[in-house]
Each structure stands twice: as structure tokens, then as C-alpha cells.
RNA sequence: GGUUCUGUGGCCGAGUGGCUAGGCAAAGCUCUGCAAAAGCUUCUACACCGGUUCGAAUCCGGUCGGAACCUCCA
């Protein structure tokens, strides 16, 4: 079956074919590193991570470009003629680049925690001022931008006359809300729909670069156009980002790139939905963000406990990337338990063995398993339905547990099917969905000590010295280690 | 006001017109020195009103909620 992707540009699911066979170019809008990443930021990066992983699994060599926005853009369209990064820097008494570095490092740390594969190229906006200037000059020479008082604006009206401005977002220029607020620089524009390509910098502005129109800094949208073009070409396969970027950011990107390169930039536009808190988008404007550092440490009033990064990743994977997810501490707790159940089944599965060439004695069971496994690829192919992939893995869990407990005989299924199950868990859970067993990583160093305690407890049990055996179990529980007696007299343990 | 979405059982959430998604929680049973885990079973819902259809959670129209965007945003 072939991969189908919902293309925001056409508003329908399309069969994915890459422009160059075997290769995929993917650009994803990265973070603005003027502050700490919050839970909302985790969603696009986890989403495009499993998209990247799945495309790789399908055999594509993917060039994944994700930018770092380290050049400030206007806080309120230049209301104070200072950019975001600079404003915060003054507040914190830091150099702008020091601030940018700090939050970039934190972002990278969070991405590692969430087990996101590093992009192939991570270009910074400040490192591509030249490319942005070149692009602006090209747009001016094509006649689609004009300079006023050292700033350059894109002429949306002119573009819209012979291009489909608003196709991506469904916007009609004349229907855009009239802004009541007096915005600085607004009177410079020929039309309210025009957007800035270059802004003239006031003298107190720290981040500034020389340009043919005087000292200034780039507009909000041009960096993505410039960097995507530089690393992926005039036309590339996938452009991704949050739904909230559709307008005006992506719409403007399309306009700029189309004029410059005489080609619409991306073939497929993929947009992930938002994470909400009490039904409202998590975002700066609502003052309801939970930082990732707070999530992992449990230090936020809305949290009842700390949450492992993998719990957060799983929480995101449990719903489709185009649906909103509402955050709550309970929902995360539910995810935590669910994920644990899945890992335990997977760990058991690894230990089940069957002789080579074993044939199935329960053909119905055999067929059920094979059907569930074949569903995995079909679900991923259907616009990355990670929730359904997980549902099928969960349906395999009781089968695995039953084999372990002896409710289902080991020879009920064939050796080939057992092998297929093992491979599928490894590929889907770990390689594609990008989950990893945090508990087993943490517990590796304890193996020897635990084996000793288990041996002592076994001896106690054999002598029916339940006081000792209960004491060991109880004390371990106090240390966050759960000890389980199994049917065959063996014991297993997991971290709480 | 406009554009784009959306409304599913106690909670979270998949759902391509007919076939119980899944998870969490709850209850009962089995296993067990006790416990935990596990297995089995139960809880079967689609905002409202019309329409199309043999058949609608799914398609169409309307009503009422909710969200995102139109301003920095993942």
C-alpha cells in the first residue's frame, strides 16, 4: 500500500510521491529561541519526528531541515521598534546571542529527552541574512515589493491579482479583520494585507544588519523561504509546522518563494493541531504554558506529578496529529499506565522463544495476530494514524501476556509469527513511533543487586519465612521498586 | 464579521455508510501464602432537529455549543 498524506494545500488526502525518486526534502518551522519550550512545542517536533522516521522506514533518504529562529521579529509589529529577542535580553541583562544560545541548548536537550531524531540541517536565521537579503532584492526586481523609509514590504494586492493568495489558509484578503489598533509602520504599507520583508531598525535596536535600504532586520516570513530554498531547492516535497502558522506565515512564504523561484515551494503541506489546556490553546497569549522542564520535573500547579518524556511522547501519539489534544494531568497519568503496560508486554515478548520451524496449532490465533500486524503499516500509510498503530499493539499485549501465563500455548502460533511479532514491536514502537523504555534504562544498573535480593527472598519463601519475604518486598516498594511473584516461583521487578 | 475546523460512553481518545477501535477508571470472577501483575467478563456512546439511503457516529441542510487563525505563536 502506498503512503497517503493529508495535504493542507489541497485539503485532501493525496498519495505521496516524492519529486526525486528515493529522496524526500522536508522543511519544518522550528522554534523561536526567545524563551523556554513548553508542552505545546513538543507536538510539532514529535509529529514531524515520526513522519521523518516513517519516511526513512519506507526507504526514503530524507533531508530534514528545521530552522532555529534566533533573529527577533517584531513583538507587536514593531510597536516599540524592538524585536522579541532584544526585549527579553534587556530584561534579563544578557547579550541577545547569549539568550539565544541558552534557549537553543534547552531546546536541544528537550528534543533529546523526547527522543526526536536530530534534523539533517538546522540552519539559523542570523546565519542566513545574506540569503534573505538576496531574496528580498529579487522580489523587488520582480516588482512585487516596495521600499518605504528603509523598510521593504511585499505587495500582496499585486501578487493576488495573478496568484492564488489565500489558497493554503482559505483566506480572502478583503475579509481580513480590520485592525482597530494603530500599528507602527502600518501607514507605510500600501495595503493592510502587505507584510514586511525587511524592517528598518531604530537606533536602540541591538540586532541589526546592513542592507541596501539601511540598517535593519528581516521580516518574519522571509527566513523560512530563504533557508528552505537554499537547502531544499525551489520545489521540495514536504513543508510542515503548526496549524497556527498557516496564516499568515506559510501563506506569505508561498508568495515570497513563488515570486523568487517561479515555483510554488512545497508539494505537500502538513500541519499539526494544537495542544489545549481546558480547551484553550497552550500559548503565550493565554499565559497557560507548561514548560517542558516543568513537565519532566512535575513543578507546575496543574501537574500532580512529574511526567517522563516518553509519557508525553506517547500522549501525543495516542491521538491523530490533525486533532487537537486537551492536556490534563489525569490524561497523562492514564498514558503513563498504558505505556507501562505496553512495555511490559514487549519485554515479555522478547523472552518468549519457539523452536525453529514450529507450526501453529491455533490457526485462528495465528491469523488474528498476522492481521493485527499487517494493520500497522496500513495505518501509518493512512496519513500517519499513530493512534491506530498503538491500538493494534495494545490488542497484541493480552495475547503476549497469555502466552507468558500459559493461557495460550507457546505452540499456538508459529515460530515465524512469533518472530514477526518481535520485529514489529521493535520497528513500530521503537523505530517508527520513537518510544523507548525509560524504566529499563534507569534500572540497568540495579540488575545485580536485584538478583541478589530475589535470591534471598526465594530462599525465605521456600522456608515459608513469609515475614522476611514480605519485608523485602515491602522495603523495595518503599524504594519505588515493585516485585512480582510469578506462577513458576520466579520473581520479576519493575520500577514504579 | 470572515476563514478553517470541531462536538463520541465516568474520563482521554480512533473512527474510511452496514462489521464491539484502543487506553484509563469502575465492578465481578480466575490465579495466588498474602500482595501485585496478568487473564476472562460487564459497562456499547456518538450535541440537537430534519433529510438522503434498505441501512448514518460517518453524507446533506439547519440549530446550538467549542476551538484555531485573521496580531507574536508549534
Q: Which range best describes the helical content: under 10%, 10-25%, 25-40%, 40-55%, 55-70% or over 70%?
A: 40-55%
Q: Which class do the helix and strand fractions yield?
A: alpha/beta
- How far is it from the N-terminal to the C-terminal residue, by CA? 41 Å
In terms of per-residue confidence, which ranges show pLDDT below 50 for 5 or more consecutive residues? Answer: 73-82, 179-183
Provide the gyration radius in Å.
27 Å
Average pLDDT rating: 89
- Strand tally: 15
The strand line-up of the biggest sheet is: 4-3-9-10
- If classified by CATH, what would the architecture of the largest domain be? 3-Layer(aba) Sandwich
Q: State the shape.
A: elongated
CATH class of the largest domain: Alpha Beta
Which fold name fills CATH's third level, the topology of the largest domain? Answer: Rossmann fold
The CATH superfamily of the largest domain turns out to be HUPs
Q: Beta fraction of the residues?
A: 5-15%
Amino acid at each position: 500500500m502506498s503512503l497517503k498524506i493529508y495535504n493542507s494545500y489541497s485539503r485532501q488526502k493525496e498519495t505521496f510521491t516524492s519529486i526525486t525518486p528515493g529522496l524526500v526534502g522536508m522543511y519544518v518551522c522550528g522554534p523561536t529561541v526567545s524563551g523556554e519550550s513548553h508542552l505545546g512545542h513538543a507536538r510539532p517536533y514529535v509529529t514531524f519526528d515520526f513522519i521523518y522516521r516513517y519516511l526513512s522506514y519506507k526507504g526514503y533518504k530524507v533531508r530534514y531541515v528545521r530552522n532555529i529562529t534566533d533573529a527577533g521579529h517584531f513583538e507587536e509589529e514593531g510597536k516599540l521598534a524592538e524585536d522579541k529577542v532584544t526585549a527579553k535580553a534587556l530584561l534579563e541583562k544578557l547579550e541577545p546571542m547569549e539568550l539565544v544560545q541558552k534557549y537553543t541548548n534547552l531546546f536541544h536537550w528537550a528534543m533529546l529527552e523526547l527522543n526526536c531524531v536530530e534534523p539533517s540541517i538546522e540552519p539559523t536565521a542570523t546565519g542566513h541574512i545574506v540569503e534573505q537579503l538576496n531574496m528580498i532584492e529579487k522580489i523587488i526586481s520582480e516588482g512585487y515589493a516596495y521600499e518605504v523609509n528603509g523598510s521593504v514590504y511585499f505587495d500582496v494586492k499585486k501578487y493576488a491579482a495573478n496568484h492564488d493568495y489565500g489558497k493554503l489558509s482559505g483566506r480572502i484578503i478583503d475579509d481580513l479583520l480590520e485592525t482597530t489598533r494603530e500599528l507602527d509602520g502600518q501607514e507605510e504599507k500600501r495595503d493592510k494585507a502587505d507584510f514586511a520583508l525587511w524592517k528598518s531598525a531604530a537606533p536602540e535596536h541591538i540586532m541589526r544588519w546592513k542592507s541596501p535600504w539601511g540598517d535593519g532586520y528581516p521580516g518574519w516570513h522571509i527566513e523560512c523561504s530563504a533557508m528552505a530554498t537554499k537547502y531544499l531547492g525551489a520545489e521540495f516535497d514536504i513543508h510542515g509546522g503548526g496549524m497556527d502558522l498557516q496564516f499568515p506565515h506559510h501563506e506569505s512564504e508561498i508568495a515570497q518563494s513563488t515570486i523568487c523561484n517561479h515555483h510554488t515551494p512545497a508539494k505537500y503541506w502538513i500541519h499539526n493541531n494544537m495542544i489545549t489546556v481546558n480547551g484553550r490553546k497552550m500559548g503565550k497569549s493565554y499565559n497557560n504554558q507548561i514548560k517542558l522542564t516543568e513537565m519532566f520535573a512535575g513543578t507546575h500547579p496543574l501537574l500532580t506529578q512529574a511526567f517522563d518524556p516518553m509519557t508525553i511522547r506517547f500522549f501525543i501519539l495516542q491521538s491523530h496529529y490533525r486533532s487537537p489534544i486537551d492536556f490534563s494531568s489525569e490524561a497523562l497519568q492514564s498514558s503513563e499506565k498504558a505505556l507501562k503496560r505496553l512495555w511490559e508486554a514487549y519485554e515479555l515478548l522478547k523472552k518468549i522463544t519457539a523452536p525453529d520451524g514450529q507450526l501453529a496449532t491455533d490457526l485462528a490465533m495465528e491469523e488474528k495476530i498476522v492481521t493485527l500486524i499487517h494493520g500497522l503499516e496500513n495505518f501509518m500509510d493512512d496519513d500517519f494514524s499513530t493512534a491506530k498503530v498503538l491500538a493494534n499493539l495494545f490488542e497484541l499485549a493480552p495475547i503476549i501476556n497469555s502466552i507468558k501465563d500459559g493461557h495460550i500455548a507457546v505452540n499456538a502460533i508459529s515460530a515465524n509469527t512469533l518472530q514477526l511479532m518481535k520485529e514489529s514491536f521493535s520497528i513500530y514502537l521503537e523505530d517508527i513511533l520513537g518510544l523507548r523504555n525509560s524504566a529499563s534504562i534507569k534500572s540497568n544498573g540495579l540488575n545485580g543487586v536485584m538478583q541478589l535480593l530475589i535470591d534471598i527472598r526465594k530462599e525465605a519463601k521456600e522456608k515459608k519465612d513469609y515475614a522476611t519475604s514480605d519485608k523485602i518486598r515491602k522495603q523495595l516498594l518503599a524504594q519505588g521498586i515493585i516485585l512480582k511473584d510469578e506462577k513458576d516461583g520466579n520473581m520479576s521487578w519493575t520500577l514504579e
